[in-house]
Amino acid sequence: MLYFTTSFLVFLIAGVFGLLVRLEQSVPGMQVVDFKTYNYLLTGHGVGMLFWWAIAAHIGGFGNFLLPLMIGAKDVAFPRLNALSWWAFFAANVLFLMTLIPGNHIMTMWTGYPPFSLNNDAGVTALYVFVMHLLGASSIATAVNFLVTYITMRAPGYTFFKTNLFVHTLIAANVIQLVGVPSLAGAVTMLFLDKYLGTNFFNPAKGGDPLIYQNIFWFYSHPVVYVQVLPVFGFYSEIIPVFARRPLFGYTSMVFAVWAITAVSFFLWIHHMFVSGVPNWTRVLFSYTTLLIAVPTGIKIFNWMLTLYRGAIHFRSQMLYALGGVFMFLIGGLTGLPLGMVAIDLGVSDSLFVVGHFHYVLGMAITLGILGAVIHWFPLATGKYYPENLGKLSFWLIFAGANIFYFLQMVAGMLGNPRRYPDYPPIPEWTTLHVIQTIGALILGVGVVIFTYGIIKGLKSGEKASDNPWKSPSLEWKVGVPARAHGHGDHPPRVEPDWHPYRYDKEEILK
Amino acid sequence: MEQVIALPYKWWAEAVTVWLIVAVVIYLIVAIPGIYFIYKYRYKPGEREIGDHDFEGHMGLEALLTIIPLLTVIFLATYSFTIFKKQRTVPDGAMTIKVTAFMWGWQFDYLDENGKVIKTVVTGYHANDYNLQEFEKPVIPAGKPIRALLTSMDVIHSFFVLPARITEDMVPGRTTYLWFQINKPGEYWVFCREYCGTGHSHMFTKLKVVPPEQFTAWLYGKNEVAIKSNNKEVAR
């Protein structure tokens, strides 16, 4: 709860940053903020959204809440380590808010590429490095905790192939964290040493090489997109079968797809460096490995669609969020192909096309998934329902606004508009596209505000929820509504041999 | 040179078309049945209240849905490889220009066959507008391949030739390259596409493409003085 609230607040702050960034770009010239403030806002938007929202909201927030409940345990394995993890996260939060103070602005962009980040024009790199370290420490503590919890505390009979997909994806994401975070920590530590203590890892004049940073940085920071998106795949897989009232199609291949994504995610970081000057053969090799990731992700999309086949679909708002998320992810995936095809990437690298693409995936597929999950598990956490009409209204606004915004952003990128540009020459097509994008962004913003209002309203005056309101066989609903503080307590639930988290009672009808 | 305005834009555009066709086909294959299922199998009281529980998986179908995407991506990657080869192989007889980036402008050195600098053009930083003086515009001949050797004095920048849709980063301590060719005389945008600080969005220049005879006259002409004096002002 603490985790999620912190994440959600930063999500809102970073959202405001994003909106300011968008308003600045609406028309050529500088209207809203100056160049330096723009660069700060864009950095803050990126760091906030990626590290607080897209990683922490579902892993920290939902993971801590749902993991023990879903596997039939009392709590996570190391509750005090968990508290430490939250405090590290909270401290990072304080540092993040400190960057709001003028003079503390970080203007490196979230990637922090040297030698630019070593330049005085980049702002306080140290603050960025410390934020990354605190978040990294927090992530590793969480990852260890979750892995141990999953391995040692499952209810008897709750086997690998009876594990909820959210648990599979959560554990897979934390395996990536455990392998990858040290790499990021290393990269930013070297950055810190270079800037403040006179080492020369990245200084070509003294035998260093700035591309070393990019390699170490992306070795973690590409896999991290799967850290961000995998648990959301878990949400889709939990929500869609419940409201299609039938078992998930192809459960086993879904599990293999999750672990295939985890493995392949470490073999495609060079696609972020297709134009960085690395040798031609590397670019071609990584073009193949990058496109390979489309196969397991494709399996997941097909299976979600086939789950709808011969179902009895209820359009509750969380189902809308989940299906909307899958459609956003479909577009996000298909527009990822040209970025993996090195020939096309040479023409669109670092353009708004890239930004539009990753907002379909990292922006919307993830956000819709998390918001859907908030509605879905709202009764379990609070004992009340999320207001259904506000859920539907916010969904349609967010979905429509996001599509207008990000689709046209990709078109602008195809026309050559570079990213991270507060200003651009008055090319008529670009200007038109930017104006419509801003309208889309405003609609999206209104949707998020309505969703937030829905949370407050649900907490204050939501309708009281019944036990297992969605009639799901999954274990987390066995503890009653709202969930007790110690989950399943000292008596894990009985897991029968024919039990499966997606096998609904054939007679049971969701009203 | 036929109708093609720029290379490697032509091949890039072909690759984009191929991708777009593949993507739209996949989208339709997934979205049409998806939307149809959502419509057909929605909950209807008294008629369709519970989903079908027998169809939990289908080995053949799942295998097919793995193999077809696998073949598709292998095709796309291999196709992209063939285009990439053309994009990165500098044609014989290309003219070489050395481009050096700085915060936030470019220096263009025109080299002869022996690598000696014939002429230098420097584009300065224009913080408030997108207009350039004539002497700040690098000039290139129409219809002739240009090889650009790229490097940077300070941070990482990127050299993006808009009409040719080709980018390559400019990394301090390294020399990278790209090549392009523009066939139609005119003025074309060049932007920086790697974030480089406050002036990033105003790091630009305009390539002036002229007929070859005019280019030779310009290259060996005598407007050297204006450029030199400008050089001192903006390069620092």
Automatic annotation (TrEMBL), chain B:
GO terms for molecular function: copper ion binding; cytochrome-c oxidase activity; oxidoreductase activity. Its EC number is 7.1.1.9. It is a multi-pass membrane protein. Gene3D superfamilies: 1.10.287.90, Cupredoxins - blue copper proteins (2.60.40.420). Keywords: Copper, Electron transport, Membrane, Metal-binding, Respiratory chain, Translocase, Transmembrane, Transmembrane helix, Transport. GO terms for cellular component: plasma membrane; respiratory chain complex. The chain crosses the membrane at residues 16-39, 60-81. Binds a copper A center. This is Cytochrome c oxidase subunit 2. It comes from Aquifex aeolicus (strain VF5).
